Amino acid sequence: MTWMLGHRGLRWLKGAHLVLAGLCLGGTAGILAVQAMKYRLGDLIDHLTAELLLRTIWIWTVEVPFIGLVITGLLFSLLSHWGFARHYWVTAKWLLAAGLVALNWGWLGPAVGGMTALADGGFAVTGAGDLYGSLFRQATGAATILVLALGTMVFVSVLKPWGRWKRAFKVRPRTVRVAVVLVLVAVVSLAAANAVVLRRFRTMTISHVEAAGLADGTYRGEASDGTFTYVVEVTVLEGMIVSVRAVENRDNLYARLAEGVLPRAVGMQSPAVEAITGATTTSKVLLKAMENDLRSAGG
Structurally, what CATH architecture does the domain formed by 217-296 represent? Predict the structure, then answer.
């Protein structure tokens, strides 16, 4: 069995790789354009609409194509004579790609999701203004670097500079291919398992529970996502929910932004409200803790 693609197959693979790179580059430029529009218009625009647009651009023209870009790059290195470390330009591309993976999912994605969550929660969390400014700068800086890095990758792919390594790594190509396939299978399996768990919490039903009839006071309830137990306190006065507070919450950005769902629940007098876009899982579990709280109190 041969591991190498023919000339025609490599041409199709290269074409797909360049198209995906173009989509990523264009999508990231689109993010910068939306950021510039938000900066110029300020409060004249509807922030939730702008942030949802930004998030859609990131998901469908950056995140998804970037996954395809990495996959086609792997196939190109596995199924052609270029390999991973035979040529300087290929090695440089993979180093850039590793940096872009960290930049895209560790810096740009959280900033875009954070701004969306803030807007969807009505900027109700403490210090929302300063946090939004920080996330805005983070997203703009990450998108700028991403554009420059993607442009460099396209430039390197077309020109193929620097030639071959003078001393080739003495590793059998078959060994490298098997190792890469095993790593890919492990990564995909972990990602799929994580997606199944997240989907279970994101789609769980939150039921309406009446506070009418409850005695005045503060009630405490909890819910778990399997790794952390969230605790909320619900204060009831004259049959009305007057406040909901997270007592135990994770110490991270998304958990903090998810608390924006609690004022929404107070306004609707029910835990059965829409979750926060960009912080869906945690906000759903907080709402479930509120539901459990009211139900155990006799609501």
Answer: Alpha-Beta Complex (3.90)
The DSSP code for 208 is: -
Answer yes or no: are the C-beta atoms of 79 and 113 closer than 8 Å.
Answer: no
Contact 241, 264 (CB under 8 A): no
Nearest Cα neighbor of 248 from 219, 209, 221, 280 is 221
User: What sign does the dihedral 70-158-29-131 (CA atoms) show?
Assistant: positive
Q: Tell me the fold of 7-166.
A: Four Helix Bundle (Hemerythrin (Met), subunit A) (1.20.120)
DSSP 277: T
Q: How do residues 196-233 score in pLDDT, each as one tens digit? A: 888 888 889 999 999 988 999 999 999 998 889 999 99
Q: What is the pLDDT of residues 261-293, one digit of tens each?
A: 999 999 999 999 999 999 999 999 999 999 999
Domain boundaries, the chain: 7-166, 171-203, 217-296
